[in-house]
Amino acid sequence: MADVMTTPPRLTLDIEQPQGDFKLAVRLDLPGDGVSGVFGASGSGKTSLLRVIAGLDRPQQGHIKLGQQVLLDTQRGIFTPPHQRRIGVVFQEARLFPHYCVRGNLTYGMPHPAPGRLAEIVELLGIEALLTRMPGTLSGGEARRVAIGRALLSEPQLLLMDEPLTGLDGPRKEELLRYITRLTQQVDIPVVYVSHDAEEITTIADHLVVLKAGRVEASDALHTLLHRFDLTHGLGGFDAASLLEGEVVAHDHAYGLTYLALDDEHRLTLPGTAAPIGSRLRLRILARDIALALTPPPGTSYRNQLDATIVDTAVLPEAPHTVELRLRIGTRFLRARLTRKSWDDMGLAKGMNITALIRSVSFNPL
Questions:
Q1: What is the pLDDT averaged over residues 52-56?
Q2: Taking a C-beta distance cutoff of 8 angstroms, is the pair 200, 165 a contact?
Q3: What's the CA gap between 173 and 193, in Å, rounded?
Q4: Domain extents for the chain?
Q5: What are the entry keywords (predicted)?
Q6: Contact status, residue 60 vs residue 46, Cβ threshold 8 Å
Q7: Do the beta carbons of residue 37 and residue 30 sit within 8 Å?
Q8: Which of 65, 149, 169, 338 is most exposed, with minimal Cβ within 10 Å?
Q9: Predicted pLDDT at 200
């Protein structure tokens, strides 16, 4: 994919926007690359924040800056209109022009003819077979892929995505998430991705912003926030997860397995993948999919057993009979969870060396 610009711009903002009884008051400094996920319950202000960034709503006070471009500064009377912000927006609805075919929708916002760029985006999103179709004949997932392509072809410096998977059924949702994941790994612009689904966010994001009642509850690298016990309930509770990265080092085609190195000492066995040797995978491991043992158990179906050290624990108010744990695996960390009875029966304590048994892993290529 050709570079959109040499140095992707950081997005910084500090705004206040009253909306009836609700007030959006957000201060952020987001990375100039990768995906910044914006997560929160319905009514937390996620879509309102995106509309302000896009210029669709004008805050009462504050400033917004994208790279060196000042988009908003209420003290200086600066307000850049939406069409001059070089920001692509993908809404929950595709919002395609019904009287244009797919090709017409894609090329509508292109600042100048660029057949090569069009071909790249069409291939990336897998929509070549749709080019002559009219929007009314597209499925929900197809229409949203076209909407994403149209936004990218406007040559934006920033892409905003507002819950693009909402309303899709399971298979269509998984398919579109795969396309979006691939897209965010190949385009050279920052993406702000809004969702209320913790699994979506942990699949796609690098940085995470947690909104609550119009304010920022937390903003940091995703893997850092996933290990904060105080955010457990807000980030999915039962589905609390950890992210790890590893390198594909071998395949066992006879048994349909792939071997992944986390570091020089720790390896995982995964269901067979087509990932080439040397490529990297992002792993998502749910806390509820980890069991603990005092020593490596023999004669078990658990293929993944990792030496670990208990570095931190907590008992959360909303789950008083459960112990949350943070484990160190080499230089990485892993979330785990077990009942207080198991904790007491095993005589576990902070600083102990144990074995982490991993039941299940989901993964995406990097």
A1: 96
A2: yes
A3: 15
A4: 11-225, 242-365
A5: ATP-binding, Nucleotide-binding
A6: no
A7: no
A8: 169
A9: 85
What is the amino acid identity at position 16? E
Q: Which neighbouring-strand residues pair with 357?
A: 291, 305
CA atoms within 13 A on the CB side of 338: 22
* Per-residue DSSP letter, 276: P
Q: Which segments of 118-252 are extended strands (E)?
A: 158-162, 191-195, 207-212, 215-221, 241-252
CA distances from 90 to 120, 154, 242, 314, 336 (A): 19, 12, 28, 39, 36
- Residue 3's pLDDT band, with cuts at 50, 70 and 90, is very low
Closest CA to 233 of 253, 210, 251: 210
Q: Can you name the CATH fold of 11-225?
A: Rossmann fold (3.40.50)
| Percentage of residues of the chain with pLDDT beyond 90 | 73
Mean pLDDT for the chain overall: 91
The class (CATH top level) of 242-365 is mainly beta
d(CA 62, CA 75): 8
pLDDT at 2: 43
